[in-house]
């Protein structure tokens, strides 16, 4: 009997190790084909192929709780992502590799032999001010390789092309082995809009049947995209604010989803031949059924639009982190309208001054920052120009608060066909 119990214990132990090692090596990497993956609990697998002492941030100094993932790029873009620990002060590190091999086995063998180096890494400790361990790639970050220590938690976004394949190894340095969620800011054709466990959606419905929907305390919101004549237009929708740390994406003329009470969302829309559009909506306290009409204007020479969410730190031409999604939308506008040329116009918050050289210089630097970002994302420089206007045409000539002052520090885009 004792031998039987011992045998069962050995089998159970072996099975637990086998399960624990799932996705713990390059060859067992989890295939990710949606914008949200997880939560994933690392399992303590040791993979020495990604550890190297004194690598100055290019490899883990040592590995602790390894998870490998692999994903294919669905469209040309700037790759950004978030790795969100479920225990926010967990210390998450990552290495990102580009796979240029025809076979996964060849790629993983090169990893094992230390013949490949990552294109992006981040080994920073949790943010010292917020104690948050969230990490990833960001449009506003400046460093490709981030070593150990109290360094920026985000690394620089990466220009990627459709069909490219990337492997990423994620290490939870924290002994608690807490789970994490990976948010890839990519438009996967088979998974758009986002499909996550937390997401509440309603199927697209016609305006005539919307009145029959009465979700308790919530709002059923349909975004309806048309031109000025009322004809439906298929647009690329980016919706922020509806879900924490998520951007909802859809490529359609009608999109319906459910909002909790008192939620404010921002809706950005791009469509071929139309100006970039921004809308906002706040859901009421009680149950309601609402249609948000997004009316697109045709692209015309000398028309302008304000990039409301491209914000800068006070006194410098450095993007605030909240600028990331807006910058991506500007890239999409330029790609959706390949025959359009633009003038990027920078403005500052400098009430009461004579619009001196300093104000003009800063506004020009801010416009140039947007220009340089678009150029780095592959937009032809011949399609763009930039100019600084200082404190001319401030939205709030006498700003009464920080929100109005921030609105004056803006960027506008004028069509120059």
Number of domains: 3
Broad structural category = alpha+beta
Summarize the amount of helix as a percent range: 10-25%
Shape: globular
| CA(first)-CA(last) distance | 86 Å
Order of the strands making up the biggest sheet:
1-3-12-6-7-9
Task: Describe the SSE topology.
Elements: H1 2-20, E1 30-31, E2 36-40, E3 66-72, E4 77-79, E5 81-85, E6 92-99, H2 104-112, E7 120-124, E8 135-138, E9 145-149, E10 154-156, E11 158-160, E12 165-172, E13 180-184, H3 207-210, E14 219-227, E15 235-240, E16 247-252, E17 254-259, E18 264-270, E19 277-282, E20 288-296, E21 304-306, H4 324-336, E22 342-346, H5 357-376, E23 384-388, H6 402-408, E24 411-415
Parallel strand pairs: 1-3, 7-9, 8-10, 14-20, 22-23
Antiparallel strand pairs: 2-13, 3-12, 4-11, 5-8, 5-13, 6-7, 6-12, 14-17, 15-16, 15-18, 18-19, 21-24, 22-24
Explain the overall architecture:
There is one protein chain. By secondary structure, the protein is α+β, with helices and mostly antiparallel strands. It folds into three domains: 23-191, Sandwich (Jelly Rolls); 207-296, Sandwich (Immunoglobulin-like), CATH 2.60.40; 304-415, OmpA-like domain (60s Ribosomal Protein L30, Chain: A). The protein contains six helices and 24 strands. It has helices spanning 2-20, 104-112, 207-210, 324-336, 357-376, 402-408; strands spanning 30-31, 36-40, 66-72, 77-79, 81-85, 92-99, 120-124, 135-138, 145-149, 154-156, 158-160, 165-172, 180-184, 219-227, 235-240, 247-252, 254-259, 264-270, 277-282, 288-296, 304-306, 342-346, 384-388, 411-415. The strands form six sheets. It has a six-stranded mixed beta sheet, with no helix packed on it. The chain has a five-stranded mixed beta sheet with strand order 2-13-5-8-10, with no helix packed on it. A hairpin with a 6-residue loop joins strand 18 and strand 19 (277-282). The longest helix has 20 residues, at 357-376. The chain is globular and about 60 Å long. Residues 1-21, 190-205 and 210-216 have low confidence and may be disordered.
């Amino acid at each position: 009997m004792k031998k039987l119990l011992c045998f069962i214990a050995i089998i159970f132990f072996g099975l637990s190790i086998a399960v624990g090692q799932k996705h713990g090596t390059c060859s067992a990497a989890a295939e990710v084909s949606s914008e949200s993956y997880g939560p994933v609990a690392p399992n303590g697998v040791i993979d020495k192929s990604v550890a190297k002492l004194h690598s100055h941030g290019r490899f883990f100094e040592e590995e602790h709780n390894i998870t490998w993932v692999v994903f294919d790029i669905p469209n040309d873009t700037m790759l950004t992502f978030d790795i969100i620990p479920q225990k926010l002060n967990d210390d998450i590190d990552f290495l990102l590799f580009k796979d240029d091999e025809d076979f996964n086995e060849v790629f993983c063998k090169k990893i094992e032999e230390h013949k490949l180096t990552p294109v992006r890494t981040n080994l920073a400790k949790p943010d010292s001010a917020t104690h948050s361990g969230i990490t990833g790639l960001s449009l506003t970050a400046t460093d490709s390789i981030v070593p150990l220590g109290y360094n920026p938690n985000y690394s620089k976004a990466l220009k990627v092309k459709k069909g490219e394949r990337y492997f990423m190894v994620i290490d939870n340095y924290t002994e608690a082995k807490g789970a994490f969620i990976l948010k890839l800011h990519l438009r996967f054709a088979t998974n758009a809009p986002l499909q996550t466990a937390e997401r509440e959606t309603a199927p697209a419905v016609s305006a005539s049947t919307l009145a029959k929907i009465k979700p308790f305390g919530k709002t059923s919101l349909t975004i309806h995209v048309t031109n000025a004549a009322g004809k439906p237009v298929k647009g690329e929708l980016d919706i922020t604010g509806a879900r924490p740390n998520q951007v909802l994406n859809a490529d359609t003329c009608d999109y319906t989803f459910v909002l909790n009470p008192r939620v404010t969302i921002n809706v950005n829309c791009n469509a071929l031949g139309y100006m970039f559009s921004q809308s906002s909506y706040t859901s009421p306290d009680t149950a309601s059924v609402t249609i948000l009409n997004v009316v697109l204007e045709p692209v015309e020479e000398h028309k302008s639009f304000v990039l409301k969410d491209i914000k800068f730190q006070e006194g410098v031409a450095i993007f605030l982190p909240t600028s990331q999604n807006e910058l991506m939308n500007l890239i999409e506008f330029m790609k959706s309208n390949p025959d359009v040329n633009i003038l990027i116009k920078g403005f500052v918050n400098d009430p009461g001054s004579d619009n001196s050289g300093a104000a003009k210089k800063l506004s020009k630097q801010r416009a140039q920052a947007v220009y340089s970002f678009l150029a780095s994302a592959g937009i032809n420089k011949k399609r763009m120009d930039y100019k600084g206007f200082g404190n001319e045409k401030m939205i709030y000539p006498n700003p009464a608060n920080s929100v109005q002052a921030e609105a004056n520090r803006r960027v506008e885009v004028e069509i120059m066909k």
